[in-house]
Give the backbone structure.
Amino acid sequence: MAYDKFTVLTSTAVPLPTENVDTDQIIPARFLKATEREGFGDNLFRDWRYDVEGNPKKDFVLNDPTYSGKILVAGKNFGSGSSREHAVWAIYDYGFRCVVSSFFADIFKNNCLNIGVLPVTVSPEFADKLLSAVTENPSTEIEVSIPAQTITLLSTGESESFDINSYKKDNMQNGFDDIDYLLNMESEIDEFEKTR
Amino acid sequence: MEKTTLFDKIWDAHVVRSVPSGPDVFFIDKHFIHEVTSPVAFLNLEKRGVKVKYPHRTIATPDHNVPTVDQDQTIKDKLSRMQVEKLRENCKKYGIELHDLGSAHHGIVHVIGPELGITQPGMTIVCGDSHTSTHGAFGAIAFGIGTSEVEMVFATQCIMQSKPKKMRITVEGEIGPGVTSKDIILYIIAKISAAGATGYFVEYAGSAIQSLSMEARMTICNMSIEMGARGGLIAPDETTFNYLKGKQYSPAGEDWDKAVAEWSKLKTDDGAVFDKEYTFDAADIEPMITYGTNPGMGIKVLGNIPTTEGMEGSNKTSYLKSLDYMGFAPGEPVKGKQVDYVFVGSCTNGRIEDIRSVAAFVKGHKKADNITAWIVPGSKEVEKMAQEEGLVKILEDAGFELRQPGCSACLAMNDDKIPAGKYAVSTSNRNFEGRQGPGARTMLASPLTVAAVAVKGEICDPREVFQN
Ligand code: SF4
């Protein structure tokens, strides 16, 4: 599905320094029963966010009103495990448009790019800097620019560039997805299929 | 001529077009679907007004969400029922082959593909499930995709993929008694970590790997994703061909000979270069078990949980958080820890060989009183063989509860959940927090270790329990 265009995003951020956050934490399997893509944001980090009775757990960052924003600054090896795109739907539906980490799992990263959430890989040092800046001062703003391929901590001006291939970059800026591209090469694919 | 790897050969043969400084348009030979990751893809397809382009290249089965009792009756859980019904509806509408609940070849998608001979060397295979890597055991490029990509495959039989880097993991030597392919892969993941192969596609090689049966190879490739790899594959050989011969979808007659001739070419050239290589000695591998909340947190069953020495910052915090979830302390042994549940099943270890080995070990024994023991065959075919071979009787006599095929307690989407705080030793592939039910504490191990734990009621080494 096409998504909103993404060029430059300036926002406060939510810090989640835990390492190896897997997709079962992002959205537990029991919430994958829908046949439509709706309401996944409510169950984002479900078991970290709510206790068994459904009461919010006070010490979890999403329940802390101090922190908000469209950027999630995460710990190392974020999104490992299952290929469930529901994990990214939950992140998107909750309101995040960008996840920052020093290391992402592959399928998760692909899934992000396919639905318009930008995964930004930064150096471990810069990730630590962002995490502590945001944690200490929740009004800290971060600017993520796709055209410039940079992520900047606005309070200090410190900045790092990130990788994104030019094809995906175009897609993100225009809100296009891969299917549009593939549907346009139908006859080429047909020819190829005959040889298989 | 340029020396290339097995992976390059298959990949390059499936590139329809390379987008300049972008991904490849990658052609998919076979596409497996199940009820959980396909409905939204079908829905979006409909919204776009696009049809499934090559329906005969997609095969469906409901597995993730299905009950493992009373499969002949209407599914009680409303949402699960709706997903299964949607799958039926969509398969009918688009002419997709469905192996439905109760039918002769129903089962976990990664168990039935190989069983039917759909999975073959040299193919590209995807499924909206990360353990699609299982099919790599046949010398295929197989990996998990997200729902948007499922939609792409429906619409165009292609996805956009950047070619991963290449890693080779060689295991040389002879595997010791009581050690299985599950121990080999748990050992490898513990060595290179749960993220150690992220960005890579792995080829497994070496005499220890070659000595394994197809089923054991599938267990290894299955867990490639647990070290972050997109997938893993093993060059096809006589073992592969013997397994495939005579299967329902395997080529037959003249076509078979032609196919084997082609498949025999699928090898890494001597001197081909990998981006990363690891070599392990099979003699160093002992029965393994995990103690934490990712599959990289594994040790010898007879070993101690690592201390926090050398850890700091968020690394240490995350480590302690994980041990706290498991109710374990740094430095302590795992042997002797009380266990509540054992689970034999999943696409990692739910095949007939696994059930045979559990049955052979528990024969004449009884499970301990404190243990609830579930055994869930990976498919109808496995269930049938287990019955015909008398394994069901042996297992029932030992106090195991045999359930009907499905993913079951591997991800606990159905009712097969481990209660909060309870310990389960499981043959599945993920020990993430809550994976087997909210609050459940999972320890991953081989079917042999699970059999030993069932009998002893606590963590133990299968070599000590079954001495003959
Ligand atoms: S058995 Fe487990 S890992 Fe395998 S397909 Fe089912 S849920 Fe996924």
The mean pLDDT of chain B is 97. The two ends of chain B are 53 Å apart (CA to CA). The longest strand of chain B covers residues 165-172. Chain B has 17 helices and 19 strands.
